[in-house]
Every structure is written in structure tokens, then in C-alpha cells.
Amino acid sequence: MALPKANRLKSRKDFQAVFREGIRRHGSYLTLRALKPLYSIKSTLDTVNQTTQATDSAHLASTRIGISISTKVSKRAVVRNRIKRQITAALHNLLPKLSPGWRLVVIVKPTAAESKCVSPQFLQELEQLLAQAEVFDGNS
Q1: From CA 98, how far away is CA 138, in angstroms rounded?
Q2: Are 85 and 104 in contact (CB under 8 A)?
Q3: How large is the C-alpha radius of gyration of the chain?
């Protein structure tokens, strides 16, 4: 079950922005990098940037999520893809609870493959990391 296209973080520029400016939250299997919505940052800027704010509002309609899993986790693509599918399924369950406009990158640690981590563990850890980063709608 893949994420909807509107919720996918695809471009290299977006990934780099999240890694450069985003906040970090660490778990035992995953690391979450989260970048707050642009409209909260740009609202403090002067009127010159209002035109860019209007063009960015289309991108802010939904939270966009990317998953990063390196060959350090496992040399076998089958293992990496299985972990990625499990994380995607967990994120699909959490998607309605997320505040709009966030850009998130989930980074998988090598311990996820070593410990034979399963979907409920990914779901639990993602909930904890998202709550710590205050990404949930209403910060609950």
C-alpha cells in the first residue's frame, strides 16, 4: 500500500532542505527529520515574499513524506524493500492524524534489519517520534 502521490517527498531539493533545516528525533530503529510548514516561517517576512508564499501554498496542502534506507541497513534489496513497505504501511495509518504542510524524512537505522523488526514496532516508534516532533494535528 503506497502513499498517495500528494504525500510523497520526491525531489532532491526537498530532501536536502529537510536534512539541512529540519529537526531530528531519534528512536532505536528509526530517525525522523521534520521540517515545519513554510507558511509559519514566511508569515514573519515582509510583503516581498508574499508572491512566493502563494506559489508554495499548493505544496503545503498535504504533509509530504520520504523514506531513506541505505545499503548499510542491508546489502540485500529484498530486505530494504520489505522494511520500506512496512514503514509505508505504518505511515499510511498515521496519515490522517498529521498536521498539513510538514515535510518528513524517515531514516532507517541498521538495527531495524538486525533485530527482525516488524510492522507494529515501526508503527509504535513512528507514533512516538511524530509526537516528540509535534507533527500530529493538535500536537496530541
Answers
A1: 9
A2: no
A3: 16
Higher pLDDT, 132 or 1: 132
Q: What DSSP character marks residue 100?
A: T
Q: Which amino acid is at 95?
A: L
Specify burial of residue 40 (Cβ count, 10 A radius: 0-12, 13-18, 19+).
Answer: exposed
DSSP state of 9: -
Q: How far apart are CA 37 and CA 34, in angstroms?
A: 9
User: End-to-end CA distance of the chain, in Å?
Assistant: 26
- Tell me 33's DSSP state: E
Is the pLDDT reported for residue 116 higher than 90?
no
User: What grid cell was written down for 132?
Assistant: 516528540
Q: How far is residue 37's CA from residue 59's CA, in Å, rounded to a whole number?
A: 10
CB 116 within 8 A of CB 29: no
Beta strands at 23-26 and 103-108: parallel, antiparallel or unpaired = unpaired
| pTM (2 d.p.) | 0.81
- Sign of the alpha-carbon dihedral angle for 15, 16, 20, 21: negative
**Grid cell 509526537 in the structure block, residue:** 131
